[in-house]
């Protein structure tokens, strides 16, 4: 039986995560509360989005203020008054005491909540009945009302390691400044670029007077068809067999996040393996979805190439049935992709260990200039009949960054012929798709229409499709030229004999320079060159004219800063 089908066949009943109380800072159910009381130091609230540390901070920080703790289980009228009095007492007590005494007071508060709740639950019928009727059955919610802002406990978040670079760049007034942080294509004049085919497709949409009605939850049907065909190839049998569940996503990021939600819900305990290093947002996405992840070796700084042995060993050692996140092409940030032979071996181990490959395809057509060549890795896995996830993005290859257009594809299949037959009869596809839709609806309801129509119009019109391919080749070509020029400048200027040829071996819009954090900071502070702290530069944001300047900055940072 296929992995996806066995998991999805089990009945899922979503767990409520919070009560209705709008004042509630903390919401726990009674069993967790017991744990909280007795193992106060090791308890984690992660399932409820609060750690004990946060809880402690919240409570302690308000001790110096006038403090009232309220218990608010709806329909708990009889007990409410008594609770308020007791908590007011403990609150005042806590306010005037210090250190350990505070902890003891809090201990009593929690113990008291537990004690009273149990009494009430085991007590008179009338009370329990009233309790059962309400939404707060078996749950306690505590509202902490203080005379300071309720947002007091919210600390400053750090800037995003990639998008934060653009913010810093905008604030810099130096005329030599160069933004090589975010991966966004610029012209030779370093201006943003809107593809001609996009403008044509938009004109078509205006001429047709297309409306702005809501899309279905799964997105625009014409887009979903086009995107799956681009990815797998229009004549791929798995499309005819309807084995691919495709839903339109909010670009690559939103599609990955949707898949992460599917993993969290239907593969509890499953781990996602991500490459070390990887695109910075991958970790955020899985953390946010509460999916456990660990890393597999990928980049070898000694060879400035792929640590293939390490990668294979780590995938082999991962718990059976793990999700293995792979960059379909143009690995971000290293620019190092496995060779076709290496992809075969990666597929072998993944199959051997019953893992599920999870491709992130953010650069199809943008790496090599060919849509088909850049999809080869995904197609290789699909041809083996493997079940897989593929997230797609049109931010780079169609320059639709802000339109947020992409897709999530789940290929459903099985190793044995009988199961394939079952799949051919559409038993898997509708179920997976229905669950993806169910996950999408409360997150964003349905996706935006504009980008979807652009993609559908471009792919659906042979003339526009060919024009798009030519423009994509042009963009990929410009990046290759800049890459070559940067290498030439570095080789000519650097007299130390360092071999910079790794730059030419990398593919895609990025170059992983090998500069460390301090060296990268020198690039920004001294040279006004903005890049991510891991030493990644976006060549799509570089012009031929700026290559020499960049080479000077890199050589200085590399040799004069440690
Ligand atoms: N996956 C990978 C590997 C990416 O590099 C990116 C974008 C995405 C997914 C998501 O892109 P999307 O949501 O716009 O479709 N990475 C960029 C931008 C280009 C970013 O960080 O958001 C980068 O500079 O790394």
From TrEMBL:
It comes from the Eukaryota. Residues 1-13 have a biased composition (Low complexity). Keywords: Aminotransferase, Pyridoxal phosphate, Transferase. Residues 176-554 form the Aminotransferase class I/classII large domain. CDD domains: AAT_like (cd00609). It catalyses: L-aspartate + 2-oxoglutarate = oxaloacetate + L-glutamate. InterPro entries: Aminotransferase_I/II_large, Asp_trans, NHTrfase_class1_PyrdxlP-BS, PyrdxlP-dep_Trfase, PyrdxlP-dep_Trfase_major, PyrdxlP-dep_Trfase_small. Its EC number is 2.6.1.1. It holds the Pfam family Aminotran_1_2. Residues 14-23 have a biased composition (Polar residues). Residues 1-23 are annotated as: Disordered. Its cofactor is pyridoxal 5'-phosphate. NCBIfam families: PRK09257.1. In eukaryotes there are cytoplasmic, mitochondrial and chloroplastic isozymes. Belongs to the class-I pyridoxal-phosphate-dependent aminotransferase family. Homodimer. This is Aspartate aminotransferase. It comes from Xanthoceras sorbifolium.
């Amino acid at each position: 039986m296929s992995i996806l089908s066995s998991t999805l066949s089990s009945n899922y009943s979503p767990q409520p995560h919070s009560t209705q109380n709008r004042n509630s800072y903390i919401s726990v159910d009674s069993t967790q509360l017991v744990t909280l009381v007795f193992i106060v130091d090791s308890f984690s609230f992660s399932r409820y989005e609060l750690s004990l540390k946060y809880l402690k901070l919240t409570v302690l920080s308000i001790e110096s203020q006038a403090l009232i703790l309220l218990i608010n289980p709806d329909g708990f009228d009889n007990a409410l008054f008594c609770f308020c009095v007791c908590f007011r007492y403990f609150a005042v007590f806590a306010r005037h005491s210090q250190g350990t005494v505070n902890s003891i007071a809090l201990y009593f508060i929690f113990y008291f909540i537990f004690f009273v709740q149990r009494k009430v639950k085991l007590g008179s019928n009338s009370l329990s009945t009233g309790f059962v009727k309400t939404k707060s059955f078996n749950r306690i919610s505590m509202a902490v009302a203080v005379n300071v802002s309720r947002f007091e406990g919210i600390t400053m978040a750090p800037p995003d390691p990639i998008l934060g670079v653009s913010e810093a760049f905008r604030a810099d007034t130096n005329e030599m400044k160069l933004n090589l942080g975010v991966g966004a294509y610029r012209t030779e004049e370093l201006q943003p670029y809107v593809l001609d085919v996009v403008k044509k497709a938009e004109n078509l949409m205006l001429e047709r007077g297309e409306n702005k009605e809501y899309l279905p939850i799964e997105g625009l049907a014409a887009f979903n068809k086009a995107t799956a065909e681009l990815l797998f190839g229009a004549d791929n049998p798995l499309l005819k067999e309807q084995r691919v569940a495709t839903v339109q996503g909010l670009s690559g990021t939103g599609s990955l996040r949707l898949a992460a939600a599917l993993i969290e819900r239907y593969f509890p305990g499953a781990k996602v393996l991500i490459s070390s290093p990887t695109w910075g947002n991958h970790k955020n996405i899985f953390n946010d979805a509460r999916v456990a992840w660990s890393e597999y070796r990928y980049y070898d700084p000694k060879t400035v190439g792929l640590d293939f042995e390490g990668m294979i060993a780590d995938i082999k050692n991962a718990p059976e049935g793990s999700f293995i996140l792979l960059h379909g092409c143009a690995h971000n940030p290293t620019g190092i992709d496995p060779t076709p032979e290496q992809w075969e071996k990666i597929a072998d181990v993944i199959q051997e260990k019953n893992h599920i490959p999870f491709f992130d395809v953010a650069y199809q057509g943008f790496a090599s200039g060919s849509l088909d060549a850049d999809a080869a890795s995904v197609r290789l896995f699909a041809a083996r009949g493997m079940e897989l996830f593929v997230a797609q993005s049109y931010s780079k290859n169609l320059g639709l960054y802000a339109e947020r257009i992409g897709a999530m594809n789940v290929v459903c299949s099985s190793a044995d012929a009988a199961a394939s037959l079952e799949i051919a009869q559409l038993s898997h596809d509708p179920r997976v798709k229905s669950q993806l839709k169910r996950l999408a609806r409360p997150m964003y309801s349905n996706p935006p229409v504009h980008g979807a129509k652009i993609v559908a119009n471009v792919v659906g019109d042979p003339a526009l499709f060919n024009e798009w391919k030519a423009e994509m080749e042009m963009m990929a070509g410009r990046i290759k030229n800049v890459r070559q020029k940067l290498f030439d400048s570095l080789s000519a200027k650097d007299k130390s004999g360092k071999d910079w040829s790794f730059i030419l071996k990398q593919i895609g819009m990025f170059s992983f320079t090998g500069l460390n954090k301090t060296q990268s900071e020198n690039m920004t502070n001294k040279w006004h060159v903005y890049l991510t702290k891991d030493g990644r530069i976006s060549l799509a944001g570089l012009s031929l004219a700026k290559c020499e300047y960049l080479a000077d900055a890199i050589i200085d940072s590399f040799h004069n800063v440690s």
